[in-house]
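User: Could you check the structure of this?
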Amino acid sequence: MGVTWSNDAGLTLTAGGKTLEYAAWGPKPGDAPTLVLLHEGLGSVTLWRDFPQALVDATGFGVLAYSRAGYGASDPVDLPRPLDYMTREAIETVGDVLDAAGIEHAILLGHSDGATIATIYAGSVSDMRIRSLILMAPHFFTEPMGLAAIKAAGVDYVSGDLRERLGKYHANVDVAFNGWYDAWTNPDFEAWHVGDTIDHLRIPVLAIQGRDDPYGTLAQIEEIETRIYSPVETAILNDCGHAPHLDQRHATMEAIRDFCARLDRIEREPVQIA
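Assistant: Sure, the predicted structure tokens are below.
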């Protein structure tokens, strides 16, 4: 099974019982590994902007991006979202996306919520198609400063221009924003913690974090480093907020390029049997 491998507008696939918009760049599955992009809590396919093509140019890998249900032009979702929405997304949808696209050799590249979803999937589902993770600004537990930043975004959404700006990228902007905002600001969400999924990772991980990220501190990266059993590389970037691929494009691309090159070289090396 596979999908049309193109970044033309209007392409859809079915995953998790929903119709999801997607776009693809570079080599098709089977011709090269595929970087599967999982967007942030307010993201979509189009909000990746030129990043997917830059990844193709830097790595030679294919790239698939999709908008989760409730985002972009994908099917809507009922609100409120459950507080374990990231775990549900990982378990119910990620594998279906790989199935629909015919991807057999995947690197999950997630940003923010997407990085958490990638980790949950790789740490909860035995899927040999997942060869590694690239995590940009991941979060595994709440932090007071992060929750404060989310509440500030809520003020901007109601009183500022955030709703207008996001409306360019989401068919139902209120569903996209409120689904994310209401979950994170629910008092019960303060106890949310999914760090235990890291314990079960057995694949290489690249973690990229900005020192000036208003949504999460280096404690999120330390959670990976102290819990993981598999190889982990980190790129801690100065003068960088919550979006390393936007705030520090060159350093982010360099880290991803080198990580992917090492993975590719290792997988191509012949196995020596004594």
